[in-house]
């Protein structure tokens, strides 16, 4: 069986990690060719190479607030769909797996123009009204749906009128590659700098949906409570999020917070993840956050906002804590609780 896994976003994130991990593990059972944009996809391509996953890059525009890119998206919408349909048809694919969420219209339309079966993967729990409207008009083209979480199915279920196969498949973590007892080389200089500090970390691409303002406010609240608390954000700053990143730095200055460190993206987060004393997810919205699952695979106590299906796997008070979205005070309270008790963190 030959599958084209298509995604319009080239930046490496949860969906891209899932694509490469699953395709790599399928091996000879099901052959996957990942089709991705040229733009911003270098780390994604590197990850495909590392997992021996074949890929093809195309000139594909994405929906964005950057006016030049948005204009290109509108102008080249139809030509890109037609080109993609030709690629699907010539590739003799048995199935088109459209990843990345409800705004991934091009892959669905092109798949049907090519006469292929299409599986639409929905991995979010909110979308702008115009995206939902277009999704409602086009969802009937799909032959089935994968939801990354029960919350995604609850969100999109009322919008789907057609009787099509539905599956809930959480974002996967290969636990053979994550474990608290293994040694992960890398970032030794940074790790040495953190000696004696209580590291509270998160892994996230820098964008507003990750609620990093709340993380900074949490750091402010803990400043007088935990003297050695040090917050670490692991994730790249892309060009279209530079203004947001600068606003976070200004907020740190305004609040007098000097214990929040942005260390940039990593091709391998495990050396830093292993060093974290606690993992925090401050997101405003998620579906199945793979970064949280990776932290759990590394046996980290998790404090997370109540997003996506996190509360199904992080049982409050058992293997972590769940707090309301944007509740910085409760985040601080739970992190202080973990700091005060080594035994609680170990449990």
Element layout with pairings:
Layout lengths: L1 E5 L7 H13 L4 E7 L4 H9 L3 E5 L8 H9 L1 H14 L4 E4 L6 H9 L3 E6 L6 H10 L5 E4 L2 H7 L9 E3 L19 H6 L4 E6 L8 H11 L6 E6 L7 H14 L4 E5 L5 H6 L2 E4 L8 H8 L4 E4 L4 H4 L6 E4 L4 H13 L1 H5 L1
Parallel strand pairs: 1-2, 1-4, 2-3, 4-5, 5-6, 6-7, 8-9, 8-11, 9-10, 11-12, 12-13
Helix pairs in contact: 4-5, 9-10, 9-14
Note down, in words, how this protein is organized.
- With 347 residues, the chain is of the alpha/beta class.
- The protein is built from 15 helices and 13 strands.
- The chain has a seven-stranded parallel β-sheet with strand order 3-2-1-4-5-6-7, sandwiched between helices. A six-stranded parallel β-sheet has the order 10-9-8-11-12-13, sandwiched between helices.
- Helix 4 crosses helix 5, helix 9 packs parallel to helix 10 and helix 9 packs across helix 14.
Strand content: 15-25%
Name the overall outline.
Answer: globular
Unreliable sequence segments: none
The DSSP helix count reads 15
**Lateral strand order in the biggest sheet:** 3-2-1-4-5-6-7
pLDDT averaged residue by residue: 94
Largest sheet geometry: 7 strands, parallel
Q: What is the number of E strands?
A: 13
Helix/strand structural class: alpha/beta
Please give the share of residues in helix: 25-40%
Radius of gyration: 21 Å
| Distance between the amino and carboxyl termini | 44 Å
Query: SSE order, as H and E?
Result: EHEHEHHEHEHEHEHEHEHEHEHEHEHH
């Amino acid at each position: 069986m030959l599958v084209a896994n298509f995604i319009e976003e080239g930046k490496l994130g949860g969906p891209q990690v899932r694509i490469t991990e699953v395709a790599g593990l399928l091996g000879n059972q099901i052959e996957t060719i990942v089709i991705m944009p040229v733009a911003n996809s270098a780390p994604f391509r590197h990850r495909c190479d590392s997992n021996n996953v074949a890929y093809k890059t195309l000139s594909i525009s994405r929906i964005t607030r950057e006016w030049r890119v948005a204009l290109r998206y509108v102008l080249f919408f139809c030509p890109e769909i037609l080109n993609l349909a030709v690629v699907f048809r010539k590739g003799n694919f048995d199935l088109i797996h459209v990843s990345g969420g409800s705004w991934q219209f091009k892959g669905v339309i092109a798949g049907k123009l090519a006469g292929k079966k299409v599986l639409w993967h929905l991995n979010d729990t909110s979308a702008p009204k115009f995206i939902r409207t277009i999704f409602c008009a086009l969802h009937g083209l799909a032959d089935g749906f994968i939801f990354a979480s029960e919350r995604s199915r609850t969100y999109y279920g009322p919008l789907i009128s057609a009787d099509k196969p539905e599956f809930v498949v959480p974002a996967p973590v290969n636990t053979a590659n994550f474990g608290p007892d293994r040694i992960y080389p890398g970032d030794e200089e940074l790790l040495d700098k953190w000696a004696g500090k209580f590291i509270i970390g998160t892994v996230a691409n820098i964008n507003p949906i990750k609620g990093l303002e709340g993380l900074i406010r949490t750091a402010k609240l803990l400043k007088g409570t935990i003297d050695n608390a040090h917050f670490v954000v692991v994730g790249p700053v892309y060009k279209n999020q530079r203004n947001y990143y600068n606003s976070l730095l200004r907020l740190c200055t305004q609040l007098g917070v000097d214990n929040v460190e942005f260390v940039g993206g990593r091709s391998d987060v495990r050396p830093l993840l292993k060093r974290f004393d606690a993992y925090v997810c401050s997101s405003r919205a998620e579906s199945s956050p793979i970064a949280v699952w990776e932290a759990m695979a590394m046996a980290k106590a998790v404090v997370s906002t109540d997003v996506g299906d996190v509360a199904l796997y992080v049982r409050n008070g058992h293997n972590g804590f769940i707090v309301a979205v944007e509740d910085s005070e409760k985040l601080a309270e739970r992190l202080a609780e973990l700091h005060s008790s080594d035994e609680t963190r170990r449990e």
